[in-house]
Write a structure and sequence with these properties.
single chain, alpha+beta, Immunoglobulin-like, 4 helices
Length: about 375
Amino acid sequence: MDQTPGKGRPRIGREEITAGLLWLALTATGEVVLWNAPLLPARYSDTAHISDDAFLVLTRLAIPVFAFVVSVLVVSLLRFRSRGAPKEDGEPIRGSARTIKTWLGITGGLAVLLIFYPGIYGILELQRARSAGMDTEEPLVVQVKAARWAWTVTYPDAGVTTGEELVLPVDRPVRFEVSSVDVLHSFWIPAFRAKIDAVPGLTTVTTVTPERTGSFDQDPLLRLQCAELCGLQHSQMSMPVRVVEEPAFEAWLLEQGAAGMPTCEPSGTELRIVAQNIAFDRKCLAVPPDTPFTIELVNNDAGVPHNLSIAADPEWTQVLFTGETFDGVATRTYEVSGLPAGVYRFRCDIHPIPAMSGTFVVKEAEGS
């Protein structure tokens, strides 16, 4: 700004006018693009629009601020750029109390606005929407357990556990109970705009009502993704999500329950199982009763710890054997005492997920 002779007040010059006109043009262009361009992906839940609206409000308010910074930089570079090394200091710049007050007033007003809208207002709107959904219909409880680097989904009312996909009914409230067995993870379904931390030793809860059907094959945002950096294979910690009609969901639950536990026949007392990509290569192991046996565990996951344990019950309260934990790539051979005839469980204690668990059958071989 120029100085008015004798008064010491700043006078608006050509540079300020140019920057102002450029700011208006950039702001108008940005707002028009934001209002008309399809920037946000498809929504699959009843509360997703609340998050989208908050994002759009913040973006609309950010456009004029960003345009102001760009305008000042462009005019400064074109008008006051240096040509060679400077020979002396530039003229001192004296601020204006009016400019400072105006700047603080505008930025302070924006901060207060954002605290109340979409801040507090958006949180209250989310709470109201979720409470309304829970009050009108009995929610479907889904327990989600995180472990490096996979998800385990349990439907406790149906007694179904899976590590393959998350299947949900459309138009029915869902209560997710999220936990972690090792480190901090984050439960995130982009298509639902639903996200909450999975904290070791704590169960966190979030609710959502899917409002349209779809699958991961149709839209890659329909996936359960870890959104908290949790280690080597963090980026691969995802699970497909599928939203179906209620009859199809009930049929899927029945199919999962009917699948039951895999069975196999004993083939000797020297067993071998391979752990690779956070999964065992076998879902069933079998040995003859009352006979000592060995289990060779091959850990092909470099730098990842695994072990193998055996328990008598699905709740894992009666542990019969716990093998040494070791990092891959390596192999250990466990020696186990004989077990009475029966059906047991085995798993990796470090990653107690469906991909690293199975059925341990102790019985006489057929034809023996």
